[in-house]
Amino acid sequence: MQLSDLKNLKIAVVGAGYGGAAAAKALSLLGARVDVYEQASRVREVGAGIGLRPATMNRFREWGIFDAIADVTSPSDYFEILTATGDPIMKETWPADGEQVHTHLIHRGDFIDALMGVLPEGMVHLGHKLESVEDKGEGAVLTFAGGATTETDLVVGADGIKSVVRHQLFSQKSPAFSGEHAYRTVISTDAAHGMVVDDNLRMYIGRGTKVYLLPLRHRGQVSFDITALNPDGTWAPQVTKEDLLKTVEGFDERLVAITRDLDMDTVNIRAVYDIDPVDTWHTDSVVLVGDAAHSMLHHQGQGANSAIEDGGALADALKQAGSLKEALALYQATRKPVTDELQRISRQGWTEEEISDVFPGQKPAAAGQE
User: In angstroms, rounded to a whole number, what is the distance separating the alpha carbons of residues 300 and 27?
Assistant: First the structure.
């Protein structure tokens, strides 16, 4: 689209999570008028740590915000997968993207704070819970709780796994329960019983349980995550310390000790859900990004990365295509095959034998390499 067309484009982003904030930054750099509508009264992220892949960090470099993000991260050289008792299964450097070779480990809260901090003042409107989206073909109308409305040329639905935009316009399928729970917290490095010795992600697997140790050295902390089989699909289930200890029976005694020492009030407990692939992500004036488009299980560590890549790809498509309609089709054609595959791989079973096929979406040079 022509620069003049982009500057006249009015865009409403629904949701101020990773996908919404990234899309807002990328689209505002095109010169478009962007407003972000978030239902919460303040933007915050619970949970623990994530890894921002090299391609994602290069997007931040492209948008001029690399340092703002990197300053609150720990750069990691590789990831390692081990058995429950610590025998090595696989050790791989992160897939590089150009000169960027590090995956940057970051706390979810620090990440969303950094993203919010690089958006222009006044762009984010809190306390706007979306009730309906009306697609008018040549634009759309959003209606929020309380009756406020806004008319816009393009709606970017970045409203997560329970997306109102997706449900009203694209798919009424409910999120799908994975049969797993995720238990996430952050502890001090000193409380990790000597298991954190560098800035690299380690995952221990056994008997349907995965334990992640993700260092946050810049904080003097480590993200400690357990993913375990559980048939209770309640979104926020009740789980005791005894329940947690049962999931790590037979694991390295240090991991058991970390679990035993946890303050359960600090543990974020969630049933794990994703969505089935959505056939179409866009109309002529509404488009989905991030979890609203392709929520995936966390086994690949690609949810946030994919959401950010969506924002970059949407901005790229608007620059490259001749019209808004063509741009949305190009965006979907670029991103959907990638996320369909990530959704598929993330649902695989994760036995020790399957690791070489499912992490991190690439076959390693040699399983079991030191």
Answer: 27
